[in-house]
Amino acid sequence: MRTIKHIGLIIFLLGLTIFSTLPFLGTYSMSSSEIDQWVEQKRIKSELFAAALQEDVADRTFEGMMELSPVIEKNLEEANATHRKNREYDKVIYTKATDMAAEIGKQAGIGFIAEKKGLMWWATFGLGILGALMFILPNVILLGAKGIKNNGIYHQNATNRGWIAWGVFFYLIAFYLILYFRPQYAVNWTYLMDPISERLSGNQAGHWFVYGFMYCTVMVVMGVRMYIKYRHNRYQMIRTTSVLFFQIVFAFLIPEIMVRLQMPYYDFKNAFPLDYDFFFQWNLRSLINSGGIGIFILVWGIALTLVIVPVMVYFFGKRWYCSWVCGCGGLAETLGDPYRQHSSKTLLSWRIERWLVHGVLVFAVGMTLITLYSFFSETGTVLGIKTSGVQNAYSLFIGAIFAGVVGTGFYPIFGNRVWCRFGCPLAAYLGIVQRFKSRFRITTNGGQCISCGNCSTYCEQGIDVRAYAQKGENIIRASCVGCGICAAVCPRGVLKLENGPEKGRINPTEVLLGNDVNLMELVNRK
Amino acid sequence: MPKETIAIIGNGISGITAARHIRKLSDKHIIVISSESEFFFSRTALMYVYMGHMKFEHTQPYEPWFWKKNRIELVQDHVEKVDHQKKKLLLKAGQPVSYDKLIIATGSRPNRFGWPGQDLKGVQGLYSKQELEQLERDAPDKETCTRAVIVGGGLIGIELAEMLRSRDIPVTFLVRESSFWNNVLPEGESQMINEHILEHHVDLRLSTNLVEILADDNGRARAVVTDKGDTIPCNLVGLTAGVSPNVDFLKNSGIALNKGVLVNRYLETNIPDVYAIGDCAEQEEAIGQRRTVEAVWYTGRMMGETVAHTLCGNRRKYNPGHWFNSAKFFDIEYQTYGWVRGEGSRPKEEGHFHWRHPQEKICITAAFHTDDRKFLGINTFGIRMRHEVVDRWLTEGKSIDHVMEHLRDANFDPEFYRTYEDQIVSAYNASFNTQIRPQKKSWRRILNYTGS
């Protein structure tokens, strides 16, 4: 069994290595006529840029994106500079230079990687999935009888912030930086996914499709790990199934199918303000111009945030969204599960959390108000603030850096819910509802608590669960996503997540069960 | 007037609970002395540190700033002597500490029954932080420790077995009783745990006693001899045959001792202004069916809370409610409420209803009075119970039939877990010729709504 695990690990690392070298490999070449065709198809009005491409790119061969990208970036910037100087604003190209390099790269790829798409898929994703499953499946036997299996978590390098964890940390950060800021280096990855993308939406794969597919793959493989690890716990089994279902069907398949049916790209579950650009001008216009389905999405999106989400939080707590439906939560609960113990439980981090997460909520709502004002009054500035500037700042700092790079990159060192805890504006909003108007609570059998600390240690949201449990106080916290792990790891059966009457939700803790004091006397004294 | 000084010896759950509640109720000067650790930690969680579930710091329920903020002075030193006439504590390293009132909360230490070889290297109990550290040194992995022998089949014994098995160290488990913990557990439950111990590849030897521990040339344990005539080679011997009060330093101090520090219901010793709580305290007269010395986390916590009230001007009797306890045997959680006796100590009038799942390691035993069918207590394995509900049944003197009918109210398992009330109650009906139908869970009953 251990041998299978080791072989699996080697196969996985092989797949990962091939995948990781792809951004640096590949041959790119376009003929003069292909460039003309592409310029026309893209309706590029800058004759300067077109001429520059003919001059510098046509009929040349570039080895690797490192050669091609600078040429395109330089020419694009020069062409734009000239147009701006000549006040030919209609000719300025607003596509970012890096995106332009990615687009041209996608057209220009030749050679092994671009042609043997299926083989390359197997050499990367295929090996990765196979190797990971070979690494994970033997645990059915190796873990022994079913039950909580956290043995060795703090002895192992990978889960105890050792060099492997730091390696994963930097790898994930690098991956997200490419994804968000240097998509041209992801071009080779998109080739592998073309066959699947074409079958789904009819289009070639972009780097976001690669990301979406990879997201689903990682969640499924690590979901298998969850199924094995928590096979004694039906709450975890069902919850894992739920996040996998919503990720694959809603977040991944439905939007692709919508595109195939000439409808707007929408997944029906990503709610504003997590879906922060829902009210951006381009999205509103696109929805309004998409006929009935567009209007339906618009109404659905607004109802989701204003009615459906809070009503569901009232009945079930924010867990129904954060740890049963949400994609960010889904990744955190599968890929992030081995790292959940790293969230900080200090009072200081709780203070930072409250300022930060509510700050982001205020930012998101403020930005949206400005956006809507601009939309309806058709101006570009509100009170002297440029709407697009605010949007770009939010997209960059919150949407890309916080949610993406930090959100996932920080898993191995700071725990798997950094984004959900410190940054997600939707979580902040649901948290307020959960705290003040909900039937959800974690009931505590305070008498049986031995203050061991397993609950606090494994709380991914950094809640000091023990502080409540040992006092017999029900846990009613805005940040609780209801993953249920505290109740799972408790050796004494102290914690239970449940939905019940609001009356009695916040319980008196004057007397911990066990000490039989005269209750009437206690009441009279007060 | 200067503030009154309360000195507390011991920073375990009892001493720290007392300190916290004294601070809640008063502005007294509080000083806690312990040589074991700088900060309070959860003793019952030490096993998880060895198993790698947590780091030692995670077993500390309060952050280091907590003590300063709450003005609880911590002294890491060992109390050598108590001079109650001068109201002074003599410390091993530091200056003597004067007090106005003293709380003794020194806990327990592992029993050693004079076995030959019990003081050899590689022989240890598992109670203190130091013993955990010693285990880490002597049994870091299965290469260094090729076999461990555990002597004593109680809660600490099985925990030590679980710890060592988590590092794949072969374990031989010597249990004096004919079945694991059957002096406490009823037969069916004890039997199920035997099976579960074997599932974890522990060499379980029932009805077996330790005769002698053999030494190698370096004075380390090399083997164990049993009363069955076996010699078992090993590198580590865990002595887990119970604990007794850690009170040796009080001999000849004038404070009355028996097994532990003798206290009355107010937790007062024979000396004015000296109190004892937790594992080290011994009740002069047993409370109900409880033992006079109760080495249990929960009772320590209750005594700590009680003595704090007494010291803050509200003299309060130690009045523990219904007995409860819990433990975990490898993967099986165990909870008990009220009294359910093992075969040896079971009174004639205590009837049992036992149900065990046909495949899973899940079972319950409910005890009742055979005359009036009053509910006396329940043990559950693999099913969690809602403390509040069971406690109320006991207080209200409900019948076993009532308990069976409302069993769903007491289920505390996580959502979506399979529930077994139907099987349990139909087995009960079959045994007692009753026609009880389990009722639906009722929040109204659970939260004890009265009126509206």
Give your account of this protein's structure:
The complex is a heterodimer of chains A (about 525) and B (about 450). Chain A contains 25 helices and seven strands. Chain A is mostly helical and about 525 residues long. In chain A, the strands form three sheets. A three-stranded antiparallel beta sheet of chain A has the order 2-1-3. The model of chain A has no long low-confidence stretch (mean pLDDT about 95). Chain B has twelve helices and 25 strands. At the A-B interface, α12, α22, α24 and β7 of A face α7, β21, β22 and α8 of B. Chain B: This is FAD/NAD(P)-binding domain-containing protein. Chain B: Its cofactor is FAD.
Measured by DSSP, the beta-strand proportion of chain B falls in 15-25%
Main β-sheet of chain A, in a few words? 3 strands, antiparallel
Largest interface: A-B, 54 and 58 residues
**Overall form of chain B:** globular
How many helices of chain B? The count is: 12
Low-confidence stretches of chain A: none
Backbone structural class of chain B: alpha/beta
Short description:
Chain A: The chain crosses the membrane at residues 7-26, 119-142, 163-181, 208-228, 240-259, 293-316, 355-376, 396-414. Chain A has 526 residues and is mostly helical.
Q: Could you give the topology of this structure?
A:
The complex is a heterodimer of chains A (526) and B (452).
Chain A: H1 2-21, E1 27-29, H2 32-41, H3 47-56, E2 61-63, H4 65-85, H5 97-108, E3 109-110, H6 112-115, H7 117-136, H8 139-142, H9 163-181, H10 187-200, H11 207-229, H12 234-260, H13 281-288, H14 291-316, H15 319-322, H16 327-334, H17 347-377, E4 381-382, E5 385-386, H18 387-409, H19 411-414, H20 418-422, H21 425-436, E6 440-444, H22 454-457, H23 465-469, H24 485-489, E7 495-499, H25 519-525
Antiparallel strand pairs in A: 1-2, 1-3, 4-5, 6-7
Helix pairs in contact in A: 1-7, 3-4, 4-5, 5-10, 7-10, 7-11, 9-18, 10-11, 11-12, 11-16, 12-16, 13-14, 17-18, 17-21
Chain B: E1 5-9, H1 13-25, E2 29-34, H2 46-50, H3 65-69, E3 72-76, E4 79-83, E5 88-91, E6 97-98, E7 101-104, E8 108-110, E9 123-124, H4 129-138, E10 148-151, H5 155-165, E11 171-174, H6 187-199, E12 203-205, E13 210-215, E14 221-226, E15 231-233, E16 236-239, E17 243-245, E18 261-263, E19 274-276, E20 281-283, H7 297-311, E21 324-329, E22 332-338, E23 350-356, E24 363-369, E25 375-381, H8 387-395, H9 400-405, H10 407-410, H11 421-432, H12 443-446
Helix pairs in contact in B: 1-7
